[in-house]
Structure formats: C-alpha cells, structure tokens
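Weekly modeling sync, notes
Attendees: AB, CL, MP (scribe)

Item 1: holo prediction request
CL wants a bound-state model with 1,3-dihydroxyacetonephosphate before deciding which constructs to order. AB pointed out that an apo prediction alone won't tell us much about the pocket. Agreed to run with the ligand included and paste results into these notes for async review.

Input as submitted:
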Amino acid sequence: MRKPILAGNWKMNKTPAEAVEFARALLPLATRYPQVEMVVCPPFVALPAVAEALAGSRIGVGAQNVHWEKNGAFTGEVSASMLAGLVDYVIIGHSERRQYFGETDELVNRKIKAALGHGLKPIVCVGEDLAQNEAGMTDTLVAGQVRAAFAGLTAEQAGQIVIAYEPIWAIGTGKNATPEDASRVCGQVVRRAIAGLYGAGFSQAMRIQYGGSANDKNIGDLMAMPDIDGALIGGASLKADVFEAMVRITAERR
Ligand code: 13P
C-alpha cells in the first residue's frame, strides 16, 4: 500500500517570515490526517525557520533544488551537505529548472546522486511540453527522463525516490491533465520504466505524484486513479485552506 504524498512546491514565493507563519497554520493538519504524508518546499532562505517551526510534526520539509558538487566555486548554489539535517526531501529536475536554468537529464542524475549521498529523498520531476505532447512523444520522452534520472542507482537508492509526473503544459495554466491521462502516464509509462529497471514488484512500491494545476477541485478525481499516489502542488499549495482541503480529500479517498 503506497502512502499518498502531497508536496507543496512554493517556488519563488513567501519571505521567511511569511513562510513561518504559513507553516504554523499547517501544523494542525499533521495530527488530523495521518493517512497522508505532507511536505512543504519553501525557498532556500526560509528553510531553517520553516524546519524549526515544523520540527517534531509529521509535516516534512523539502528544498526546491540542490547542486551536484559537495562544495566549491559555484556562486549562488547550495549543496546537499548544506541541506542534510535541515530538510527531508529535495525537488530535482523541475521543468522550470530544466527550462530556465539549463538542467539536463545528466545533471538531474548527478543531483539525485548528491542528494542520496547525504540522506535526502529526491522528488524527481519528469514531464513533456505541449509540442511534445501534441507530437505524440510523451511516452518516449517521459520514459527516457526516468531512465536517465535513475542511471547507476541501486534499488536501495531508488527506493528513496518519489517521482512527480508534471506535464509542462499543465503547470500554472489552470489546465490539468485529465485524471485518466495522468494516471496512464504514471502507470503505463513511469511505473513501467521503473519496472524495467528494478522489476515489477519494486515498481509497485514506487510513489508517483501528479503535478500541474492540481487543486481542491480536481484532487479527488486524480487521487481516485490507481497509479496516482499524490500531487506536487504549486499555486494551490500557497493557500492554507486550499492545501488543507486537498489533504482532507486525499485522506478521504484512501
Ligand atoms: P501549479 O500547481 O501551480 O500548476 O504548479 C505545479 C508545479 O510545478 C509543482 O511543482
């Protein structure tokens, strides 16, 4: 049985003070909905304060990015050793990082290895853009991203990872993938690619989130799908009442 995981990717939003206030408002959810794993991913500068505010609660904290090297002359970057002990998760390979910051499949793989090497659990993002989707390239592209991300990882390492399937055309557009399409890619493409690497039994334990305009209106239908194990949530995770509604609906579906 895969425990559903809802993660809020706050992106470049909220000052440290706002982030802490928001994190405190989420605290009651941890005891109310033990069936759902919750994670918040604030910007780097808010991580220490948010981690402190949520310490001892069941709400996890994640970073939005990590560098692949241990340390050195990489102005503006943050390494896995700096995040170790501070956060539980780290988002790697988000499409915005791939698109605006030149992250390649190879870098994603190196970042995953760096994160795992410091006990951080990667949330690895994959997904196709609109042109690729319309050209019928989704399955090949997404399967390729998964295989590249997991290159050289042992099953033990792979078991630490959560995958987020985020079709780029659905991110921030208010246009989510249909639950059926999202579940098909999560199951027939992502889970199958994992099965090809580590075996069918292993792939059944892998948690795969959907991301892209997920909100309180569509999360119920998404979570009713057999191969969707949660969501990576952008805009809707910035409002406490909407995030709570999403957690509650997810808990009710399980
Ligand atoms: P939205 O939920 O705002 O579409 O963002 C999704 C996302 O990119 C989460 O990582």
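Recorded for review: The pocket of 1,3-dihydroxyacetonephosphate is lined by residues 9, 94, 166, 171-172, 211-214, 232-236 (CB under 6 Å).
Action items: CL to compare against the apo run; MP to circulate these notes.
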